[in-house]
Specification:
Keywords: Kinase, Transferase. The chain has helices at residues 6-74, 88-94; strands at 110-112, 119-121. By secondary structure, the chain is mainly alpha-helical. The chain has a domain at 8-74. Strands 1-2 form a two-stranded antiparallel sheet. A hairpin with a 6-residue loop joins strand 1 (110-112) and strand 2. The radius of gyration is 51 Å and the shape is elongated. The mean pLDDT is 79.
């Protein structure tokens, strides 16, 4: 049988450990790259979806504007009845002759005294307190 010195076996073991650590690092690096690529692909897909949605909305808006313009072009101008110059005062003169009657059931609620300081209300007593 082949006999190997103990130190060379340990150095081989350390080399294997280092090699396995490098292999693990490579696999983790590949995983991270794939995650990053997936994230970038997902972001690109979302951006394309948003662009498509914006294009669709712009097209809908353009169609709506065209329909609105066509509807406005097809409409006639509104016809407004012109004023004939009749005023309300003229109507009052025409009722019951050419004069306006005096108001019915009119009562004065405020009277003025000769001095400007006092105002007396009918039906109320003068208030003192100044």
């Amino acid at each position: 049988m082949f006999h190997m010195p103990l130190e060379s076996f340990r150095s081989l073991q350390q080399d294997w450990k280092v090699a396995s650590m490098f292999q693990e690092l490579r696999t983790k690096e590949k995983e991270l790259r794939s995650w990053e690529e997936e994230g970038l692909l997902q972001a690109a897909w979302e951006q394309k979806a948003q662009e498509a949605e914006l294009r669709r909305r712009e097209q809908d808006l353009a169609e709506w504007e065209l329909n609105l313009i066509m509807a406005q072009m097809g409409q006639e101008e509104p016809r407004v009845e012109k004023r004939r110059g009749h005023c309300r005062g003229c109507r009052l003169e025409l009722r019951e002759g050419n004069h306006i009657s005096l108001p019915s059931s009119f009562e004065h609620k405020v009277t003025m005294s000769p001095t400007l300081d006092k105002v007396t209300h009918i039906g109320q007593e003068e208030r003192s307190g100044r």
